[in-house]
Write a structure and sequence with these properties.
Blueprint (H helix, E strand, L loop, with lengths): L1 H7 L3 E7 L5 H13 L5 E4 L10 H12 L4 H13 L6 E4 L2 H5 L6 H12 L3 E3 L8 H10 L3 E3 L1 E2 L5 H10 L4 E4 L16 H11 L4 E4 L5 H7 L5 E4 L1 H11 L6 H15 L3
Parallel strand pairs: 1-2, 1-9, 2-3, 3-4, 4-5, 6-7, 7-8, 8-9
The protein binds indole-3-glycerol phosphate (IGP).
């Protein structure tokens, strides 16, 4: 995955989708649509009742997905169906720790990582994983053939940035600003000083910048320093808006909106 990102040259888009928002059948079609739209990789969000780092848009999307009965097993079946249908875009399970550990008994996390891999996931992104626990989790993920992608934020000290950059796999997720996710609190730019500081520690590791990105201009600005622009809330909101309400084929409208939104991110 890393080699592909570095080699491609241009900034690429990593869309975030909340799995099960609108139902898992819709998620399957959205995966196909974003792959066809040129996504570099997909963050597939596992809905959770207490998503502490998420703003209102993604909280609501998670609540809708849970209300629709979405489970991690169901999400795995969806990714399996996507792979069986020939889908190749890398998919990262974006999940808080709790759903991954909910098997209860010792070894539940390892079993879950194994089944994610079997389903066709390539990696995991766990926003509430403490850096102190990352080496253990990363080793476990690696044993199961998954990469564990770690985060840094503007408040991360140099010392912790060095550790995160060293331990991350795939890319380093650079949280663009403090606060929670959400396109409505977009910053017009993430300071170059911050991204240059991150780059000092990350070397050749690709950087993925996320939080508040919703326009092609922002994607281009991010592209001066990073390989990936991660787009969550704005895309999830656009899809939901197009796909809710009755009449006609709501999923077809949602999927079409995902395509036009992805296209709108390219200058
Ligand atoms: O929604 P935004 O502002 O576009 O930000 C990306 C984001 O959605 C995704 O990467 C994400 C969803 N939940 C998170 C929790 C923490 C960090 C990142 C995330």
């Amino acid at each position: 995955m890393t080699a592909g990102l570095r080699a491609s040259g241009a900034t690429r888009i990593a869309p975030y989708l909340t799995a099960g928002d609108g139902g898992l059948d819709r998620t399957l079609e959205l995966l196909r649509a974003v792959e066809e739209s040129g996504a570099a990789c997909v963050e597939l969000g596992v809905p959770f009742s207490d998503p502490i780092a998420d703003g209102p848009t993604l909280q609501e999307a998670a609540a809708r997905a849970l209300a629709a009965g979405t489970t991690l097993d169901g999400i795995e079946r969806t990714v399996r169906a996507f792979r069986d249908g020939g889908g190749t875009v890398p998919i990262l399970a974006f999940s808080y720790l709790n759903p991954l550990m909910s098997g209860g008994s010792a070894g539940a996390l390892g079993r879950r990582l194994a089944s994610l891999r079997q389903a066709g996931f390539d990696g995991v992104l766990i926003p509430d994983l403490p850096l102190e626990e990352a080496p253990v989790l990363s080793a476990l993920a690696e044993n199961h053939g998954l990469c564990a992608t770690l985060f840094c934020a503007p408040t991360t000290t140099d010392e912790r940035l060095a550790r995160a950059a060293e331990a991350t796999r795939g890319f380093l997720y650079v949280v663009g600003r403090t606060g929670v996710t959400g396109a409505n609190t977009a910053v017009s730019h993430t300071s170059s000083a911050y991204l240059e500081r991150v780059r000092k520690f990350s070397g050749d590791t690709p950087l993925g910048v996320g939080f508040g990105i919703r326009t092609a201009e922002q994607v281009a600005a991010v592209g001066e320093h990073a390989e990936l622009a991660i787009v969550g809330s704005a895309l999830v909101a656009a899809i939901h808006e197009a796909g809710s309400g009755g009449g006609g084929d709501a999923t077809a409208r949602a999927v079409e909106r995902a395509r036009t939104f992805m296209a709108s991110l390219v200058l």
